[in-house]
Design a protein that fits this description.
Blueprint lengths: L1 H4 L3 H19 L1 H12 L8 H33 L15 H20 L5 H8 L6
Helix pairs in contact: 2-4, 3-4, 4-5
Length: about 140
């Protein structure tokens, strides 16, 4: 009887990992909220292309960190249960066509900046600061 009420070490580890998974899923709300705000409440014309690019890069980094962390947790749980582990993230940008479209829009905006400000484009300024050769 006492054996049934006490958790084994493996069960404790799995419970801990489950708690970490739940916390990680909760943290996914931050990038999801940023995407929602950009998509529905922002006048995208008011943003500079570099601001949008930075925001999207930040969201992308956050999402991939979450995906990696979640995959690691799932791998741990599967290993404890005797299952196969994952070798790569299950989701990629190809699963989200709206991200691909947003990337295309950013490229178009950057191209427009290059055309309008060929000698004073913000990326060229940054590259010059870093010592890169810029035409």
């Amino acid at each position: 009887m006492a054996k049934q009420t006490q958790l084994t070490q493996a069960e404790k580890e799995l419970a801990f990992q489950l708690n970490l998974l739940e916390n990680e899923i909760e943290r996914l709300h931050q990038p999801a909220t940023l995407i929602h705000a950009l998509a529905h409440y922002s006048d995208l014309e008011k943003f500079e292309p570099c601001e949008l690019e930075d925001a999207l890069k930040g969201i992308n980094v956050a999402l991939y960190q979450h995906i990696t962390s979640l995959n690691n947790r799932v791998d741990f749980i599967k290993a404890k249960l005797g299952g196969e582990t994952m070798t790569k993230p299950t989701l990629t940008i190809s699963h989200f066509p709206q991200w691909k479209r947003q990337g295309e829009l950013i490229k178009q905006a950057n191209r427009k900046c290059f055309e309008q400000f060929p000698d004073d484009f913000h990326h060229k300024k940054q590259m010059k600061k870093e010592g890169a050769v810029v035409d």
